[in-house]
Amino acid sequence: MNKAELVKSMAEKSGLTQKDSEAALNAFVKSVEGALGNDDKVALVGFGTFEARERKARQGRNPRNPEEVIDIPASKAPVFKAGKTLKEIVNK
User: Fold this and answer.
1) Which of 12, 19, 41, 85 has its CB 3.0 to 4.6 Å from that of 46, i.e. a possible disulfide?
2) Which CATH class is domain 3-90?
3) Signal peptide position in this chain (predicted)?
4) Do 3 and 11 contact (CB within 8 A), yes or no?
């Protein structure tokens, strides 16, 4: 499902117009991005949790030259952990 299909589905299920559904989806995405950018967590009970996790600095190999060892700096990565209800729906 792409964004347009998601907006259409949201509009059908909520009774909102597609324009309003797209605005709601965009607001949700911006809110999650803002929270993760501030090192906050977004927890939706039953659905899941969005958070940013620290990744340690490490060494890797240059894909173009496998003999060359390169340093990969520490970074943050966005992570989604599915909630119990979502896991149960997926595993039916």
Assistant:
1) 85
2) few secondary structures
3) none
4) no
